Amino acid sequence: MADVELPHDLEVIVDSSDLAEALVKAFVNADAATRQHIVDTLGDRSRNRRP
Predict the structure, then answer these.
(1) Structural domains counted in the chain
(2) Burial, 31: exposed, middle or buried (Cβ in 10 Å; 0-12, 13-18, 19+)?
(3) Which superkingdom does the taxonomy of this entry point to (predicted)?
(4) Does 21 reside within a domain?
């Protein structure tokens, strides 16, 4: 069976490719909502890493 990439929620940043796309959308296209989503996602992840 061939590897098929499953679609994922475009609002969820799961890897560096998603982050790159979100950064372009946020800063090149001046999308404030995406910019805030990046900040929220990175903040959540940093809080979850702390013991």
Answers:
(1) 1
(2) middle
(3) Bacteria
(4) yes
